[in-house]
């Protein structure tokens, strides 16, 4: 140790004393995250408003932190929530456990689960950090607050969420009457 070491430390402090202070006005001015930022999860809908989640529980199985709980239910003719036979009756994500890895997004076969750019997830109540299906479900078009991430959607979903209700109706027609794959062959409905 040299005798000049304490002076070197004070030199760093002294050099920063006269620099302009940078102040962030965070609550009033929110930063826009990067375009590919993954924040809060969102359960997406089909262009006709039905839910995309089929209750397969693959996202829950893929989650390394065991933060997702899914319970599937069967659709009936009286109550139809998704176009298939099943839907996600109970869906919860515990943000106290979630590590934001995105493995649940990759596991979803229907692109029902995506991550949007909302990043304000802190709260002082533990119960508010368990998001239910009602909290996660994408809003319908009028007054939409947070559309899903456009890079995770197909063309018909982008029409629905980005371009507006008129194109959403067209996209819904294309989606319900469009080609669907069955193994390696394409089947026209």
What report would you give on this structure?
- NDH-1 is composed of 14 different subunits. Subunits NuoA, H, J, K, L, M, N constitute the membrane sector of the complex.
- It is found in: Cell membrane.
- Residues 147-189 are annotated as: Disordered.
- This protein has one domain (34-175): Alpha-Beta Plaits, CATH 3.30.70.3270.
- 25% of the residues lie in helices and 17% in strands.
- The chain has 6 helices and 7 strands, in the order H-E-H-E-E-H-E-E-H-H-H-E-E.
- The strands form 3 sheets. Strands 2-3-5 form a 3-stranded antiparallel beta sheet.
- It is elongated and about 85 Å long.
- It starts with a helix and ends with a strand.
- 22% of the residues are buried.
- The model is unreliable at 143-152 and 173-189 (pLDDT under 50).
Brief account:
The chain has 189 residues and is an alpha+beta fold.
Number of domains: 1
The fold-level CATH name is Alpha-Beta Plaits
Name the poorly predicted regions. Answer: 143-152, 173-189
Strand order of the largest sheet: 2-3-5
What's the story with the biggest beta sheet?
A: 3 strands, antiparallel
Number of helices: 6
* Portion of residues within helices: 25-40%
CATH architecture: 2-Layer Sandwich
CATH first level: which class? Answer: Alpha Beta
Subcellular location: Cell membrane
Region (Disordered): 147-189
EC number: 7.1.1.-
Organism: Longimycelium tulufanense
Question: What order do the helices and strands come in, and which of them pair?
Answer:
Blueprint: H1 5-16, E1 41-43, H2 58-62, E2 68-74, E3 86-94, H3 103-107, E4 113-115, E5 130-132, H4 133-136, H5 155-163, H6 165-177, E6 179-182, E7 185-188
Antiparallel strand pairs: 1-4, 2-3, 3-5, 6-7
Helix pairs in contact: 5-6
């Amino acid at each position: 140790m040299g005798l000049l070491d304490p002076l070197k430390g004070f030199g760093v402090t002294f050099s920063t004393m006269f620099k302009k202070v940078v102040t962030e006005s965070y609550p009033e001015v929110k930063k826009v995250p990067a375009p590919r930022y993954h924040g809060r999860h969102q359960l997406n809908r089909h262009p006709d408003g039905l839910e995309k989640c089929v209750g397969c529980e693959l996202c829950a199985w893929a989650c390394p932190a065991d933060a997702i709980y899914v319970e599937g239910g069967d659709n009936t003719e009286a109550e139809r929530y998704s176009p298939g036979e099943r839907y996600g009756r109970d869906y919860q994500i515990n943000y106290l456990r979630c590590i934001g890895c995105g493995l649940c997004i990759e596991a979803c076969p229907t692109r029902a689960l995506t991550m949007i750019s909302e990043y304000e997830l802190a709260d002082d109540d533990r119960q508010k950090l368990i998001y239910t299906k009602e909290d996660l479900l994408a809003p319908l078009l009028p007054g939409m607050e947070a559309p899903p991430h456009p890079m995770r959607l197909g063309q018909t979903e982008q029409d629905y969420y980005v371009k507006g209700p008129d194109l959403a109706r067209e996209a819904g027609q294309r989606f319900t009457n469009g080609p669907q794959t069955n193994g390696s062959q394409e089947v026209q409905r």
